[in-house]
Amino acid sequence: MAKPLRILMLLAAATALVLPAAPARAGLLRPVLMMLRPQLENQLTRVCVETASAGRTDLEKSLQDPCRKLAVPTSKCLIEETDNSGRSLGVLTEMVSGRFGDDSEVVVKRCLARMFGLPTDSLRDMPLRELGKRFGSFKLQEAAP
Is the pTM of this model over 0.85? Predict the structure, then answer.
């Protein structure tokens, strides 16, 4: 599950804070998802720090706060898209079993599309591995003007 989260964190770094909030819509399992949000944010923060520090322990401490701030909108997006996609039960089942499956992949793709301002299902047919290849090697220096 860490690899797709790393892809999401890399992509979220550039866009998560500038997006408008999605309209509120609550499903039956949304309260359960909201209860899991602190754990999700902790995991997203950990993955962000590990990915951004690239094993350099001297960077890990300085990345904690920015990664924590990035994890908040990312977790909101993941929870909202889990709920909006109608895949809450599937995602929860995958989380409990400790695997990243089809339902989780759909949610990550929906969240990525939303973060880039694309139609929600525009990345549906693109393999997540391909998205990782395209964006996983992105360097922060390349984004600087």
Answer: no
**28-87 pLDDT per residue, tens:** 788 888 888 888 888 888 888 888 888 888 889 899 999 999 889 888 888 888 888 888
Q: How far is CA 85 from CA 53, 80, 96, 99, 106, in A?
A: 33, 8, 19, 19, 8
Provide the phi-psi class of 31: left if phi over 0, else alpha when psi is between -120 and 50, else beta.
alpha
> CB of 16 within 8 A of CB of 115?
yes
CB 67 within 8 A of CB 48: yes
Exposure letters 84-102 (e unless 16+ CB within 10 A, then b): bbebbebbbebbeeeebee
CA separation for the pair 60, 43 (Å, rounded) = 15
- The answer to whether 31 and 82 have CB atoms below 8 angstroms apart is no
For residues 29 and 8, what is the distance between their CA atoms, to the nearest angstrom?
Answer: 23
